[in-house]
Amino acid sequence: MKFINLIATILEVKKKKIKLDDNINLYNWDSMAKINLITAINKKYKKNIDVNKFQKIKTIKDLNSLIDKTIK
Question: CA-CA distance, 45 to 17, in Å (whole number)?
Fold first, then answer.
């Protein structure tokens, strides 16, 4: 998973515990985590995540894909 370190930091969990098919709601995926992700992507890659796409995220894999598509 390409963005495992970023995802682990945002979700405040050790990267070894994250599984691709895990439901995102098993983690600390709240409004603050979403804001932190938006900020991190903007600072590091100078890109903006479409916040409407957060509603479609169901798994860690979905989150990883969203980040990947955003920075391309």
Answer: 26
Number of domains within the chain: 1
Q: What is the DSSP string of 14-32?
A: -GGG--TTSBGGGS--SHH
Per residue in 44-68, pLDDT (tens digit) is: 999 999 888 888 999 999 999 999 9
Determine contact, residues 68/2, Cβ cutoff 8 Å: yes
Nearest to 63 by CA among 50, 54, 52: 54
pLDDT in tens, 10-36: 999 999 999 999 999 999 899 999 999
**What pTM did the predictor assign?**
0.88
Domain with residue 8: its CATH number is 1.10.1200.10
